[in-house]
Structures are given as structure tokens and as C-alpha cells.
Amino acid sequence: MKKYLSFFRLRFVTGLQYRAAAASGIATQFIWGFLEILVFHAFYEADPSAFPMSLKAAAAYVWLQQSFLALFATWQMDPEILDAIQTGGVAYELCRPIRIYDLWFTKNTAIRISKAVLRCFPILLVAALLPSSYGLCRPAGWMHGLLFLLSLTLGLLVTVSLCTLIQVLSLLTLSPNGLQIIFSSATEFLSGAILPLPFLPQRLRALMELLPFASMQNVPFRIYSGSMTAMEMTRAILLQAVWLLILVLGGQLLCRRVVKKIIIQGG
After folding, report:
1. Are the C-beta atoms of residues 136 and 221 closer than 8 Å to each other?
2. Is residue 139 part of a domain?
3. Between the CA atoms of 226, 229, 234 and 240, what dihedral angle is there, to the nearest 10 degrees?
4. Which of 244, 211, 237 is nearest to 223 (CA)?
5. What is the CA radius of gyration of the chain?
6. DSSP 13-26
7. Percentage of residues in the chain with pLDDT exceeding 70?
8. Does residue 102 belong to any structural domain of this protein?
9. Looking at the 3D structure of the chain, how many domains does it have?
């Protein structure tokens, strides 16, 4: 366990060094979030009763999405891992007395948390100071706040487990680019990154909420805004835990089999 904590600490500290990139990301995410909310305002002014979420809840969803983008953006995978797969550097990691799946899981978690730490607080602060219909409201209740933190942690781990699974599958390909593009494009829609899932048709939403992608950002952000009932929150958090268990165990099993047949690229 100590060696994985050391890898986590090293990757976390490395991620904190990119302050200029974080500053530009904060500006971009703030502008993008504000534009999204303006679009929501335009639709809500036509008929507020036609939407499944209140405008305040939709605004909170957008600001949380922008604040914690680094936690759930599946297109932001650890470049060092992908580079090691393409160049053959993964051979050095296979020679170490460590489990490669656990190593990649640790690195993916550390880099996402480090990026989120640099970006989330300025965005949350500015969003909280905006008018109620444009800014970030408080959690719907103290229980919603606690469940939000629990669900946010589970959502992050589900995201990391999915990304690590894609990296394991990349060991079987000549280039991980195609697999990464298909995965990230599908995840953006299925996880509610493009449009919150409550805005989708009922039957489609019911199906998508059973998939692991909905256990990422969709659940914690909706819990925070109070757009889920107590029963729905309990069910969603349990489903997050189930998917996390399935993905981690499945990823570890697949990794053990893939490593036995791996062909190292590079020279």
C-alpha cells in the first residue's frame, strides 16, 4: 500500500505544477458555463413548467460540472500512461513488483484530483456570488450536501475505473487513439455532460440511468441541486457502488489476462 501512496503523492504534486494551464482552464470553463446558463434562460423564459428541473437546479448543475470538469472528463486521460503503451515504456512498469492495474488506477486518480483542486475553488467562489438564477445555489439541505460528497467520490472512482479499463484495452491495440475517441464521445452524452439526463425522454433516461456512465457526474450534481427524491438518491448511490465494484474487479481480471499476452511496442 505504501508504494501506491507514494505514486499517488508524486503524481498529485506533479499535477499541481501546471498552474498556468489551470488559470486558462478556469477562464475557459467560466465563460463556457455562463454561456450554457444563458441558453437555459432562453428556453426557460418560453415555458418554465415544461422542464423537469428548476432553472436554479440547472444552473447549479452547470457550475458544478465546470468546477469539477477535471474529475469526470474522460477525454483527459493520463498522457504518460498512453505514451508508455505506444512507445513500449510499459515494459518497465511490468518489471516492477507492483500490480499494473493498481498503479494506473492510482495515477489516474491523483492527476484528476490535482487538476480539480487547482480549478474548482475559484469557479465555485465566483459562481456562488452571482445572482440566484445565474449562480450556484446552496445544497438543497445538509443531508444533500453530505450525500453529494459521498456520491462525488464514488462518481470519481467510477470514472477512473472506466478510464483505467480503456487503458488496459489499449494494450491490445497498435494505437489507443481510436478507442479513446469512441469511448470519450459516447461517455460525454451518456453521462449527462452535454445535457443533464432529466432533459432526455423518459424511456431513454430510464435506460441510461442504469448504465455506469450515469453514475459519474449525473448523480452527485443532481443530488446537490435537490432534483432527486430520497428514494432516487439511495438507489443511485447504491448503483454507483455496484458499478464501481464490477468495473474494478472486471478491470483487474482483464488486466491479468492481457498482460500474459501483451506485445511490447517501440524499441
Report:
1. no
2. yes
3. -60
4. 237
5. 19
6. HHHTT-HHHHHHHH
7. 98
8. yes
9. 1
Q: State how far Cα 256 lies from the chain centre.
A: 25
Evaluate if residue 154 carries a pLDDT over 90.
yes
Asked whether residue 199 is domain-assigned, the answer is: yes
Q: Give the confidence band of 230 by pLDDT, cuts at 50, 70, 90.
A: confident
Can you tell me whether residue 45 is helix, strand or coil? helix
Most confident residue range from 88-92, 143-147, 167-171, 237-241: 237-241
- pLDDT at residue number 265: 62
Q: How many helices (H) and strands (E) does the chain have?
A: 12, 0
Which pTM does this prediction carry? 0.91
Q: Is residue 266 a part of any domain in this protein?
A: no
201: buried, middle or exposed (CB in 10 Å: 19+, 13-18, 0-12)? exposed
Give me 215's grid cell: 453514475
What domain range is 114 assigned to? 2-260
